[in-house]
Amino acid sequence: MFAIDGKVALITGAGQGIGARLAARLAEQGATVAVNDLRPERARAVADELNGRGLSALAAPADITDRSAIDAMVADIASRAGAVDILVNNAGIPASGVRLTPFVESDPGDWEATVRINVFGVMHCCQAVLPAMLAKGWGRIITISSDSGRTGEARMADYAAAKAAGASLMRSLAKELGASGITCNSVALGTIVTPEMGASEALEKHARRYPTRRLGRPDDVAAAVVWLASEHAGWTTGQTIPVNGGYTTV
């Protein structure tokens, strides 16, 4: 139903977890996926696994905070598979990796990595792929955000602010690029459990805070991303789609 045959999709931070599942689902829908990760071995492992299943994938390792590296990566993808049609900005510092610091005790050094990856990384990738999308008159940009960016989060001001910035960038680009056939949206996540996290009593307790009584799974995220990447979402742009098990309802 949501086939994207013939499209080239770049997924950042796709060497594991949510990103790896996004790469798989987009490939299953017919896209050639470029698997980006900071670690080349992880990018290659995911690409090899997808190719082994008869899908179309290539490894595209690069540091998203390095603009020259991103430009070179996008040019390499174009030479091997074609210009990027779909960009999924998935790479970022996860909430679990953020040091919980009262705002009044934080300093710019505490914010630097979070902003560099979650804001400037998104900016670099968007700017690198947009010329080709504009030339084609078609494109999809999807940024993985967080409920923290929608509602705020105590002791995580840097993370919440950076995720809000990514979502706001999508809204601004949607207005700027809407007449060019390019849609720009974000997906705001609640807590997503990946295979790397395993099971724990703390996670089970946290799940009870959700109306669904379970935490999210990578496939929950992938379902929203596949729809936004498809022709069916061609009139949906500038939106932040919550995928959060009902944790927030506004």
Automatic annotation (TrEMBL):
<comment type="similarity">
    <text>Belongs to the short-chain dehydrogenases/reductases (SDR) family.</text>
</comment>
<protein>
    <submittedName>
        <fullName>SDR family oxidoreductase</fullName>
    </submittedName>
</protein>
<keyword id="KW-0560">Oxidoreductase</keyword>
<dbReference type="InterPro" id="IPR002347">
    <property type="entry name" value="SDR_fam"/>
</dbReference>
<dbReference type="InterPro" id="IPR036291">
    <property type="entry name" value="NAD(P)-bd_dom_sf"/>
</dbReference>
<dbReference type="Pfam" id="PF13561">
    <property type="entry name" value="adh_short_C2"/>
</dbReference>
<dbReference type="GO" id="GO:0030497">
    <property type="term" value="P:fatty acid elongation"/>
</dbReference>
<dbReference type="InterPro" id="IPR020904">
    <property type="entry name" value="Sc_DH/Rdtase_CS"/>
</dbReference>
<dbReference type="GO" id="GO:0016616">
    <property type="term" value="F:oxidoreductase activity, acting on the CH-OH group of donors, NAD or NADP as acceptor"/>
</dbReference>
